[in-house]
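Can anyone check this?
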Amino acid sequence: MLRLGIPVIGVTDLPRAVAFWTRALDLVATEEWRSETWRTLDHADGSGRALGLLRSASPAASRPRLHLDLFTDSTAEQEAEVRRLIGLGARAVDWGLYPPEPDFVVLADPDDNLFCVVDLSRAPSGS
């Protein structure tokens, strides 16, 4: 039976990506499938795989069709997480496609892969 695995991010610097994503999302790098071009990151609580990192020679897409959304529960938490992620090596992106009063902030990881930090309290389906 086919089942969904894990999201995989293409990166140019595998050790840098491991350092960023493990600290950003409280993940741990495992030995599972480890190679010069691959690292598997698991949830720190032992609940399983979370993310794959694959060394890639291609540049990150400026408008990717698929990306990660990282959730927060409030505007204050979103602002704090954006500051923390930038401190870990992410950068703010000058995103010209924001809607009026966006519930998300677009950042780029150290390899320029775009991801969003979403404030669920302001999301269209939020309460």
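Reply from J.R.: I decoded it. The chain has a mean pLDDT of 94.
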